[in-house]
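Researcher: Here's a chain I'd like modeled. Treat it as a single chain, no partners, no ligands.
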Amino acid sequence: MIQFYFLSILANILGGLSLAADHYDEKISGFSRIKQFFEGNPGIRVTVGIVAFLAGFLKLLSVTKGDVPVVGDLLPSLSGLLIGATMLIERYKEKTTVESGAIDVANKVLIKNKSIIGTVGVVVAALHFLLPGVLFL
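Model: Modeled as a single isolated chain. Structure tokens:
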């Protein structure tokens, strides 16, 4: 469905920018506004995280006309799942005081690498938009 295609691109770009804003804030002047926007609106971060995760999951299940099932949208799907999970776990970690082994593992794997996940998400979304018929994109 074309709606999931657009939603996946939008969620990956917004989520990727949100995750990469800390890293690029010092290097690119425009990222400070993006960082302030997402830090000042935690509800938007949670919403983008949920949408990115759901869009990634639904992209695995739905097939765009003329595309190869599952493999055709593999990178955007995985990117959406990673971006969504990272954003939601990051928010959960900010709000809770409960210690958990799973959260510690997620912190080591996802949150420590959030700028890389965000950058890859934006690149995958841009390539997915520009090259819609390419396998894996």
